[in-house]
Write a structure and sequence with these properties.
By secondary structure, the protein is an alpha/beta fold. It is about 30% helix and about 25% strand. It has two domains: about 5-30 and about 285-410, Beta Barrel (Lyase, Ornithine Decarboxylase, Chain A, domain 1); about 105-275, Alanine racemase (TIM Barrel). Strands 4, 14, 15, 16, 17, 18, 19, 20 and 21 form a nine-stranded mixed beta sheet that branches. The termini are far apart. Residues about 155-170 have low confidence and may be disordered. Pathway: Amino-acid biosynthesis; L-lysine biosynthesis via DAP pathway; L-lysine from DL-2,6-diaminopimelate: step 1/1.
Length: about 425
């Protein structure tokens, strides 16, 4: 459930007409619903109610906006970060370091130092050379780094290849079959406290079977590690739970069903469980609002050209991802159309042969379920400024990231003297 509804034939976000935001801020613009964020956090937390003090660490990569993170911080969430920048964003938003987990395959010594200075809860190591580097950094600072190894269980998540992370050919984690050896080496490294096991097999999962298979492997590994003398106190089960994008497809498993599976599989593990939800928290809490520039008749169907583009919402171009496209003020008629942006790329396409509301130049359209991996992946291709972001709460709204002027892009370039001469 989200809080984007039609009131008297006009789409609102909570109690605010979307057209009001478009008129004040311009388009394209990302709009987030506080009520939806709150509801999704509560639903996910309720799904894990049978567990003892789980750490829910929001995957910052899904949406790093400071106001969104601050909202989640007030709701008690921690953070899963994959860069020093995300770490600093999370802390600036009020998420305590004691609730932050640092994942990612390419942590640098500088990022490790930053995380140790702040005292994060856990590093999820992804290779033996990374363990060696963290040991050296921790020893140089006189600190001890709490760590887990991320295990690659060689489980196919059944999702898009570009967001699958748990197969043997993926770059993430250490091979399951080499885990005991890797843990033995890490135990002897100074400056490391080997406290846990981590796993994450992919994003936008619509079937719990692969997750259950991966978690079962983790449970077996915990037993083996303890038998080998390791003190395993945490288990990070990652994230990846899918959300509904295409209304014609079956609804992904609800968090409650996921929670039941986790509770059953992890019974007797005697660890603090950790989770890294991202999309399931923010996906349906956001929409990208755009205006139709013009409608151009194509050979087979009209092209609806909007002022949003692939640089604003990368998912359709990158993953062939589906986003429901709705008229903010529908006229009650539908047609088959192609929805494209103004960027000079054929890949700047949001939908082809889509059954949708009839729209014309000047109309507003909303790309739904755009709160995750939307603004965070945006760029400035074709010298298009980054998309602004707005947070709504009830009848209040505020710009939480302004659209930078094109002059800021131009002034960011430096022209050497020998070019000017």
């Amino acid at each position: 459930m989200d809080h984007f509804d039609y009131v008297n034939g006009v789409m609102h976000v909570e109690q605010v007409p979307m057209a009001e935001i478009a008129q004040a801020v311009g388009t394209p613009v990302y709009i987030y619903s506080t009520a939806t964020l709150t509801r999704h956090v509560n639903v996910f937390r309720d799904a894990l109610a049978q567990l003892d003090d789980p750490l829910i660490a929001f995957a910052v990569k899904a949406n790093p906006n400071g106001a969104v993170l601050a909202t989640l911080a007030k709701l008690g969430l921690g953070a899963d970060v994959v860069s020093g920048g995300e770490l600093l964003r999370a802390i600036a938003a009020g998420i305590p370091a004691s609730r932050i987990v640092f994942s990612g395959v390419g942590k640098t010594a500088e990022e490790m130092r930053l995380a140790l200075e702040h005292g994060i809860f856990q590093f999820n190591l992804e290779s033996e050379p990374e363990a060696d580097m963290l040991s050296e950094v921790a020893m140089s600072m006189g600190k001890t780094a709490p760590v887990a190894y991320r295990i690659n269980p060689d489980v196919d998540a059944g999702t898009h290849a570009k967001i699958s992370t748990g197969k043997s050919e993926n770059k993430f984690g250490i091979p399951y079959d080499r885990a005991l050896e890797s843990y033995a080496v890490a135990r002897d490294l100074p400056g490391l406290d080997v406290q846990g096991v981590a796993v994450h097999i992919g994003s936008q999962l619509t079937d719990l079977t692969p997750l259950e298979a991966a978690f079962t492997k983790v449970g077996a590994l915990i037993e083996q590690l303890r038998a080998a003398g390791h003190s395993i106190r945490t288990a990070d089960l990652g994230g990846g739970l899918g959300v509904p994008y295409d209304p014609s497809l079956p609804i992904p498993p609800l968090p409650a069903v996921y929670g039941e599976m986790v509770t059953r599989i992890t019974k007797g593990w005697n660890v603090r469980l950790m989770f890294e939800p991202g999309r399931v928290i923010v996906g349906n809490a956001g929409a990208l609002l755009s205006r139709v520039v013009r409608v151009k008749q194509g050979a087979q169907a009209p092209f609806v050209i909007v002022d949003a583009a692939m640089n604003d919402l990368m998912r359709p171009s990158l993953y062939d991802a589906w986003h429901d496209i709705r008229a903010v003020v529908p006229v009650g008629r539908r047609e088959t159309a192609n929805v494209v942006g103004p960027v000079c790329e054929t890949g700047d396409t949001f939908a082809m042969h889509r059954d949708m509301d009839v729209v014309q130049a000047g109309d507003l359209v909303a790309f739904m379920t755009a709160g995750a991996y939307g603004a965070t992946m945006a760029g400035t291709y074709n010298s298009r400024p980054l998309t602004p972001e707005v947070l709504v709460s009830g009848d209040k709204w505020a710009v939480v990231r302004a659209r930078p002027p094109i002059e800021a892009l131009i002034e960011g370039d430096s022209i050497p003297d020998w070019v000017r001469d």
